[in-house]
Design a protein that fits this description.
31% helix, 203 residues, elongated, three-stranded mixed β-sheet, alpha/beta
């Protein structure tokens, strides 16, 4: 079975499955942040297939339930060739925290701008429905330019004094070292989600 076949099959199991990524040669249940770097890694991973699933959910950080993981795994096992070791897991996430300092056109706009901006940031950074409905693909991080484009659409802002994006790892994979953010980023198969945002808006 090809990588794409596993992904298609997982989506057919349930409408709850929104996004799928098949990762051959690695047991992600045991080593969530492992990447294949050598021929020995490839040989050691022979016959192993991991499938990452993301559930359909509006929560900021969609994680599959144990029930959904088992259901997908059972279904895929039935369709896998004999001898394949199969693992179905949820995604690794990086949280995005944004700190903004804005100059307003009028102080009358402060509450509205803060409220609208917080809502827009939360919506924009949703892994499945953000980026104007496109969602965020595995391994893609937002850039400052993305946030500036968002700010352009909000009336009442004169200009942006400062903007800082910070990426944090709430869950540290068991096989990550002292820098979980760099470790998770290095996999190229993480998703981002909206964290807490600090908005300072003054005249």
């Amino acid at each position: 079975i090809a990588k794409e076949d596993y992904e298609d099959l997982a989506k057919f199991v349930s409408t709850e499955v929104a996004r799928v990524l098949c990762v051959p040669l690695i047991n992600l249940a045991d080593k969530p942040s492992k990447v294949i770097t050598t021929l020995d890694d490839e040989k050691a991973g022979s016959g192993i297939v991991s499938v990452i699933i993301v559930p359909n959910s509006r929560v900021a950080k969609p994680l599959p339930s144990q029930v959904l993981l088992r259901r997908v795994e059972d279904e895929l096992r039935q369709k896998s060739p004999a001898g394949i070791q199969l693992f179905v897991v949820g995604p690794l996430y990086l949280r995005v925290d944004i700190t903004l300092s804005l100059k307003l056109e009028s102080l009358r706009f402060e509450d509205r701008v803060k409220h609208e901006l917080d809502n827009k940031l939360t919506a924009y950074l949703h892994p499945l429905t953000g980026r104007d409905g496109q969602g965020w693909s595995f391994g893609r991080k937002p850039h400052e330019s993305d946030i500036y484009r968002l700010l352009d659409k909000i009336p009442g802002i004169d200009y942006v004094k400062s903007l800082k994006l910070e990426f944090k790892a709430d869950d540290q994979p068991s096989d990550c070292g002292s820098d979980p953010v760099e470790c998770i980023e290095g996999t190229g198969r993480f998703l981002i989600y909206s964290g807490s945002h600090i908005i300072d808006a003054t005249l």
